[in-house]
Amino acid sequence: MIKKFLFSTLIVLASFSIVFAQTKAKQETKSEEDPDNLASQYFSQVMGVAINATSNLKLYKFIYEWIGTPYSFGGNTKRGIDCSAFAKTIYEKVFNTTILRNSRDIFSMTDPLSKDELKEGDLVFFKIKSRSISHVGVYLGDNRFAHSSSSGVKISNLNEPYYSRYFYKGGRILESSKKDFVEE
User: How much is the pTM?
Assistant: First the structure.
């Protein structure tokens, strides 16, 4: 009698473990086939940023499409773009928000932040060999930011000695700036 009970218990447990294993395998396959998950994995590798379920894939896709675009002072197309036009274009196309065209003017639209307060999509400002803000980029996470530099659109690290030396502040666009700003 005890043998029958143990044998039937073993069969029930084995059945549950098979069903559990099959369900887990289906979930893993589904997540691997999920286009958003695949895109997240791809952008994480290419951009060196830990992208998760809450990340804005539209932002990473947009930046990826612009990587390598040459720098051109005053430019605002894929033939050549400068840092403020790149930030402005990201905000228009990804965040549906109009910001000003000059890095100093863009800073005036933000709530200043320290490095440790930065979140994906915030702006990073630099005073490069100047007393005033002269460069802007868009923060991606993991100390990385996208920007148009003299070598074109690329992703850099805030901890690189050059950028660390000239970093001024981060900034998050103020809600009042989003509503009140009308470009002339």
Answer: 0.74
